[in-house]
Amino acid sequence: xxxxxxxxxxxxxxxxxxxxxxxxxxxxxxxxxxxxxxxxxxxxxxxxxxxxxxxxxxxxxxxxxxxxxxxxxxxxxxxxxxxxxxxxxxxxxxxxxxxxxxxxxxxxxxxxxxxxxxxxxxxxxxxxxxxxxxxxxxxxxxxxxxxxxxxxxxxxxxxxxxxxxxxxxxxxxxxxxxxxxxxxxxxxxxxxxxxxxxxxxxxxxxxxxxxxxxxxxxxxxxxxxxxxxxxxxxxxxxxxxxxxxxxxxxxxxxxxxxxxxxxxxxxxx
Length: 269
What we know:
Layout: E1 7-13, H1 20-42, E2 46-51, E3 62-67, H2 70-76, E4 88-92, H3 93-98, H4 103-116, E5 123-127, E6 133-137, E7 151-153, E8 156-158, E9 195-200, E10 207-211, H5 228-232, H6 245-268
Parallel strand pairs: 1-2, 1-3, 3-4
Antiparallel strand pairs: 5-6, 6-9, 7-8, 9-10
Helix pairs in contact: 1-4
């Protein structure tokens, strides 16, 4: 059996709501999840390296960036690819905290989905006849993304994720394991809080979300600008590489300074 070569991923904290001390135990838990849980199911491994403030990510690494929200992502120049044209994942910790979600679950979610489909272009076709069918996005955490389905590694809550069998519609209900937490008992099944991107190839209406609930997902769950959900509907020719890390660091300092000034003004008002 060929040796699995780990993908090198730099974890970069550019948020104002998380300290490096907050991030360290999560990076350790994510490394454990990738190596011990995700790799056996998917055959993909990664080595995670936290990049301290003032240090530059090694060339040729993928990035998982911790940000406040999509506004900050735009301000700092985090776009769709690293400066080397490699995959990048974004975790909007401020948005999670605002809506009472776990940012560590989101970090786990984004990391595993980046490993499962780094180019955000893989799909599974469920064909209903010669000219009709539905493409389902190859996203490994969406179907079971709710925080309530996560599991703890030490004291860190991480995301549940589906196995390759979830995308295999020939599988019978209960015939095999479909996700890490065994919350799903059939292929392409969504559990409470889950969704999946779908594309009706005969309708030509583009990507839409299929949810476990009949009601539309609340605004907080629709995905930030620059997220994987948003990028899947954008042609790759329109993706924008990020600026160099040194420039991001400079912009981050300016951003934090503006946030601090605003906080001071509010406190004095």
